[in-house]
Amino acid sequence: MKLFTAVKRQIPNLITLGNLLCGVLACIYTYEETLHLAALFICLGIFLDFFDGLTARLLGVSSPMGKELDSLADVVTSGVAPGMMLYVILIQLSSLTWLCYLALLIPLFAAYRLAKFNLDTRQSHSFLGLPVPSNALIWVGIALYFSLPQYNHSPQFGTEYPILAFLLVAVSLVTDILMVSELPMFSLKFNFKDLSWKTNSVQYIFLIGCAIIIGLTRQWYAISLIILWYIIFSIISQRKHPAHD
User: Fold this and answer.
1) For 164-220, how does the pLDDT look when each residue is reduced to its tens digit (9 = 90+)?
2) What is the largest CA-CA distance in the chain?
3) Taking the CA atoms of the chain, what radius of gyration do you get in angstroms?
4) What's 19-52 look like in SS3?
5) Vertex 237, ends 236 and 243: CA angle to 5°?
6) Domains delineated in the chain
7) pTM for this model (two decimals)
8) Around 180, how many Cα atoms within 13 Å sit in the side-chain half-sphere?
């Protein structure tokens, strides 16, 4: 019985370590400039990040160690890996080395955000600031758009695009600030005890908007636009239903 209990307590941690492994693999593939595989492993890591906490609650084995381990994994998967991806994209778009290094602010702000989140008791049902995985998905969509050969959008053809590089850096700086901001953002979790429109109207409207974005674009950058929609709709919806302090 003690062995079973010990194994059960480690199941969420193993899922979290899987998240960390995905982040490491994403960094390796980014270094090899295989951005579509890096993006794939970031998505897989974020998927595992969702289920480690859910598994811990279902098994009744939540622990402070699991929370800290989760944040360490997120720093790599949703912080370091996206920062490296943007760095590689900027190198392809511009010869301005100093501009490319600004991409490395992503893991720094992500680490600060995660440390802040662990100590903030106000964020149990909603968020203050852009969640780190959401920010990572912005760069996943952009990386997939540039790197998949069938779409022929790769910037690797010897011509610089400094304006696009500056635009991406500007977006990254804005999202960096949003991660550590006090901007109220709604949770994507449904109330499964009551799936009515009244109880889950924010989540339903968000999903409808996501479907419209995907239907209109049918491109990988739709992932990035969905996160932008999440930010905008959070600003609108949380003004009506402010986060509780």
Assistant:
1) 999 999 999 999 999 999 888 887 776 556 667 777 788 889 999 999 999 999 888
2) 64
3) 19
4) HHHHHHHHHHHHHCCCHHHHHHHHHHHHHHHHHH
5) 120
6) 2-184 (1.20.120.1760)
7) 0.85
8) 16
CA 35 to CA 91: how far, in whole Å? Answer: 13
Joined tokens for residue 179: 């991660």
Using DSSP bridges, classify how beta strands 127-128 and 184-185 pair: parallel, antiparallel or unpaired. antiparallel
What would the two tokens of residue 107 be? 């893991």
Residues 6+ apart with CB under 8 A from 243: 122, 123, 126, 127, 128, 184
| pLDDT tens column, 156-174 | 444 568 899 999 999 999 9
Crossing angle of helices 132-147 and 64-75, in 10° steps, is: 30
Dihedral sign computed on CA atoms, order 51, 107, 153, 34:
negative
